[in-house]
Amino acid sequence: MVKTLLEYLDINPNPADKDGQTSVLGTAKEGYREVVKILLARVDIYCNTMDKDGQTQLFGPVYLSHEEVVNLFLKRADVDPNTTDKDG
Predict the structure, then answer these.
(1) What's the whole-model pTM score?
(2) HEC string of the chain?
(3) Is 87 among the domain residues?
(4) How many domains does the chain contain in total?
């Protein structure tokens, strides 16, 4: 369903909710590897967007030990693994 929506509709996958969380951040935190893989295949996904706590899309899967999801992020050249949140 996600793949179909992203391929056939002009959907912007980057809007954030009131906490600054995007579709990528939400699926990455939950460890939904296949959905993250589909989202990260798009060139218009912003991987270093920060939420209200200054956490990027990569923070959740790292913190929650979703290794396969982390590896998907690290394959992208635009992901900065050295970004820190507001607490450093």
Answers:
(1) 0.80
(2) CHHHHHHHCCCCCCCCCCCCCCHHHHHHHHCCHHHHHHHHCCCCCCCCCCCCCCCCCCHHHHHCCCHHHHHHHHCCCCCCCCCCCCCC
(3) no
(4) 1
Give tens-digit pLDDT for 19-54.
Answer: 888 888 788 888 889 888 988 888 888 888 888 888
The answer as to whether 80 is a domain residue is no
| Alpha-carbon distance values, 36 to 18, 26, 51, 71, 87 (Å) | 21, 9, 17, 11, 26
- Residue 41 has phi, psi (to 5 degrees) of -75, -15
> Is 81 within the bounds of a domain?
no
